[in-house]
Specification:
54% of the residues lie in helices and 15% in strands. The chain is of the alpha+beta class and 522 residues long. The radius of gyration is 35 Å and the shape is globular.
Length: 522
């Protein structure tokens, strides 16, 4: 009997062991199956566009953005920065290298030169988010105000997409979607790109509409200009500076040129005083400065010392002197640089005139002929030949317009466009101040006898022959300046208040994971 019981217990133990083994196996199979399902879901989700353009990665105020939306803004911020750098430093390879990230490695592996422990990826991510905050606020405000995108702006978006699509195909891409995916990352499609462009266009259009909505009375405008005249008036003056920077010894010379900062400043003051003593009128200022640069073949005696600058752009210590009560033509002075300067400078200044911008601003159009004749075997043409060639060419273009039946701005611009082989550039002149255009243009446009439709060929030695068209007087330039500044100030106040609810960025898990999957932002 005991043997039977023992055998029975042994069988039960074996069965229990087998049952546990089957349970382990079934559990393992279930785990493997779940992993397979998860892998399938992962591949399906992250291998498709859904993760990148179908889920919310960021929320700013009431606006939601996908990973693809962020990438669009990231690249827009980068391109804007890059264009600004090239606009400012395009001629300097050294500055371009210093101000732009290298293309040799990821931006997350390069430190941004202007930040504390900030990479280029961090910088452009912050720039993208700031851009998105602004767009989110403007779009939200536009919708709340019932503002819709003007048809012309919507058409411009479609024109841009059509042009980009044609360019993508001509450059070897299958279609626009392929181009966008390569340049903006996974998830960027024509549909998503269009949505972002339309959102940008709506934000821009509403911003301009809001700016235009601010209005002021003539009295308010006049009072504002009077209060800010020192910043808005233009000052014409002569200027020459002497540096008080310390001088180190030149090891290649026998003499010791070492000069302390204190001694250098004293010498700069002495030289400035000697300059001032020699000045009796404007011409003597020009002549004395020229005598100090007699060995500089690039020095131009008259323009090198002349400044015509709006008050807001003048160095503060010089501006203080220029705007003193009773300042008159012929006044002169030696002015020491401000305390904020690391090096002491002494400026010799001669006052010519102050312009209060009380003249009529103008609108018009211009075309420029800047090419020169080429004669084989005769070398470079002289200045007289160049001038004759440019003026003759410009007059031929103008004659095409004046001999036509239609005398309108549209007809004028059409003639310029059709003469693109001669006209090197053209554009509108809208409410330009007289110091923003070459003097020969300002003199012609500001002539009181000028009437709508007037045309002419005007020559400037630095630019070439201008073909010009006068449209209208836009108003007193001082009033236009003041009104524009008042509008901008009012807009800035509105924008600051409206942006309060769009400062917080809510990041969802998609944002962080997308960086790991696609190196977004780096």
């Amino acid at each position: 009997m005991s043997e039977y019981v023992s055998a029975k217990a042994a069988r039960r133990a074996e069965e229990e062991k087998a049952r546990k083994e089957r349970k382990k196996y079934n559990t393992a199979v279930a785990i493997v199956a779940a992993c397979v399902v998860l892998m399938i879901v992962f591949v399906a989700l992250f291998g498709s566009n859904l993760f990148y353009n179908g889920t919310t990665a960021l929320e700013i105020g009431s606006e939601k953005f996908t990973v693809a939306d962020f990438n669009y803004n990231y690249l827009s911020a980068y391109n804007n920065y890059r264009n600004n750098v090239y606009s400012s430093y395009g001629s300097s390879e050294e500055m371009l290298d210093a101000m732009l990230p290298s293309s040799d490695k990821a931006m997350r592996d390069q430190l941004y030169p202007g930040g504390q422990d900030m990479t280029w990826a961090d910088y452009f991510e912050n720039a993208a988010l700031e851009r998105m905050k602004s767009v989110a606020m403007l779009v939200s405000e536009a919708r709340a105000a019932g503002f819709t995108l003007p048809e012309e702006d919507a058409a411009n978006v479609e024109d841009t997409i059509s042009s980009l699509s044609a360019s993508a195909v001509s450059n070897g891409y299958k279609d626009l979607n392929a181009y966008l995916a390569i340049n903006y990352g996974k998830g960027m499609t024509e549909k998503v790109f269009r949505e972002n462009m339309l959102r940008d266009a709506l934000a821009s259009a509403y911003s301009q509409a809001k700016l235009d909505d601010f209005t002021f009375t003539e009295e308010q405008i006049s009072d504002y200009y009077a209060e800010h005249a020192d910043d808005n008036d233009f000052f014409k003056y002569r200027y020459y500076s002497f540096s008080g920077a310390a001088v180190a010894d030149d090891a290649e010379t026998e003499e010791d040129e070492t000069l302390s900062a204190e001694d250098a400043a004293a010498k700069a003051k002495e030289d400035a005083d000697a300059f001032l003593a020699a000045v009796t009128d404007e011409q003597s200022f020009i002549d004395y400065a020229a005598s100090l640069n007699s060995d500089n073949e690039n020095y131009e005696a008259d323009p090198s010392t002349l400044r015509t600058v709006q008050g807001s752009s003048v160095t503060e210590v010089i501006k203080t002197w220029l705007t003193e009560d009773g300042r008159k033509a012929g006044d002169k002075a030696v002015i020491k640089s401000g305390d904020d300067s690391s090096v002491t400078y002494y400026y010799v200044v001669y006052f010519v005139e102050r312009d209060d911008n009380a003249y009529n601003a103008f609108s018009g159009y211009y075309g420029l002929v800047s090419s020169a004749p080429t004669v084989e075997g005769e070398g470079e043409p002289d200045d007289a030949s160049v001038k004759t060639y440019r003026e003759t060419s410009a007059n031929e273009v103008l004659t095409t317009y004046t001999s036509g039946s239609e005398k309108t701005l549209d007809a004028f611009t059409a003639v310029l466009n059709n003469a693109s082989d001669i006209v090197s550039g053209s554009g509108a002149l809208t409410t330009d101040g007289k110091y923003d255009v070459p003097e020969v243009l300002a003199d012609w446009f500001l002539d009181p006898a000028r009437v709508e439709g007037d045309t002419a060929v005007l020559y400037d030695e630095d630019y070439g022959a201008f073909i010009v068209y006068f449209s209208q007087v836009d108003g007193v330039y001082a009033d236009l300046l003041a009104e524009a500044q008042m509008k901008n100030n009012a807009y800035d106040e509105w924008e600051e208040a409206a942006s309060a609810n769009f400062e917080t960025v809510t990041r969802h898990w998609e944002m962080g994971l997308s960086k790991k999957l696609a190196s977004m932002g780096g």
